[in-house]
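Sequence dictates fold. Next comes a concrete instance:
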Amino acid sequence: MTDRQKDHLQSLGNNKAASIFDYDPSLLETFENAHPDRDYFVKFNYPEFTSLCPITHQPDYASLYISYVPAQRMVESKSLKLYFFSFRNHGDFHEDCINKIADDLIQLMDPKYLEVWGKFLPRGGISIDPYVNYGKPGTRWEQVAFERLSHHDLYPEKIDNR
């Protein structure tokens, strides 16, 4: 990453970066992909996601898994963490949170491919694990997205630890 690329990153290396606890997609920052001609996955695992139930206002906890194939822009990880913090006081259903995250990342980066999977801890004895993906229209990644979604839960995982 060149100094010029670093100049526009506000969160990385900033010890005074404030944690915002109300949903704010403007916290997300990008940098240039140094390898735009190569297809490769970037995966984020975030086991500390928190949001609020929009009805009861009780906290919901999840592990988030985000994988994407970058095009020209990539999301900066500290800004992603601050963005996740911004959901802490945000009231939305699990499915809405996961779709909102996908929409924000697609708008931010215009990736070739993206998937977001939230594995929420149970409340009331039920865990909810929404999954959403996206393949850039008109590319081979559009077909990859369809295939991955249509086969997503053919072999469900055994859940015995939550």
User: Anything to note?
Assistant: The longest helix spans residues 94-109. The chain has one domain: 19-150.
